[in-house]
Write a structure and sequence with these properties.
The chain is α/β, with parallel strands linked by helices. The chain has a five-stranded mixed β-sheet, with helices on both faces. The longest helix is centred in the last third of the chain and has 17 residues. Strand 1 and strand 2 form a beta hairpin. The radius of gyration is 19 Å and the shape is elongated. Helix 5 runs parallel beside helix 6. About 15% of the residues are buried. The chain folds into two domains: about 45 residues, no CATH class; about 110 residues, Nucleotidyltransferase, domain 5.
Length: about 180
């Protein structure tokens, strides 16, 4: 259970750990034992943010087809690891596929390079590009890139991270896994 919860399931909660454990082992009270083990995990207990506050219902943005929209964001600044301080994330809301790339800085040229090479050239071009109002996404290079590729640039409202909720939820999961898995030095 320790290997599965800490390695395979990356300290995620019961559901993910149960999937991995069910593929590898079985005994009479394995679900109860796994729940007790997760409740007693010191790393999971040390990193508990509490429950998410209640909010009003959101109006979903419907996805009609694959390759319709790409949601992008940056997270960081993290302590440097091989001079990488930020993580660029792109999520495809239709399939929930995530591309995460470690980057050194958040300059416009770096963002444009990451958008083209590991996103557009590997996974395809999209019709819409949704981002927040950060200056790294609202600049001439990204605007010119969108104009050249025929991509409509969509912006979220200021101080409303719910607009790009899929990438924000991914960041929450990523930060939780990094806090539990990555050593402090």
């Amino acid at each position: 259970m320790a290997l599965i919860h800490s390695d395979s399931a990356a300290h995620l909660k019961f559901t993910k750990s149960a999937e991995h454990l069910a593929r590898r082992a079985w005994w009479y009270s394995w679900r109860t034992d796994l729940q007790v083990f997760i409740d007693c995990c010191s790393k999971c207990a040390a990193f508990h943010r509490g429950s998410v506050p209640r909010q009003a219902f959101l109006h979903p943005m419907r996805m009609g087809a694959p390759n319709q929209r790409l949601v992008i964001d940056l997270c960081g600044q993290f302590p440097p690891s091989n001079q990488y301080r930020y993580i660029f994330t792109a999520i495809y809301p239709y399939t929930k596929h995530v591309t995460a790339v470690a980057i050194c800085n958040k300059e416009a040229s770096t963002i444009a390079r990451v958008l083209v090479k590991p996103v557009f050239l590997i996974w395809s071009q999209y019709f819409e590009l949704l981002s927040d109002l950060g200056m790294k996404f609202e600049n001439e290079i990204v605007s010119e890139l969108c104009k050249l590729l025929g991509i409509q640039k969509i912006r979220s409202s200021g101080y409303r991270p719910q607009t790009s909720g899929s990438v924000e939820n991914w960041h929450r999961t990523l930060h939780a896994m990094m806090a539990k898995m990555v050593s402090s030095h």
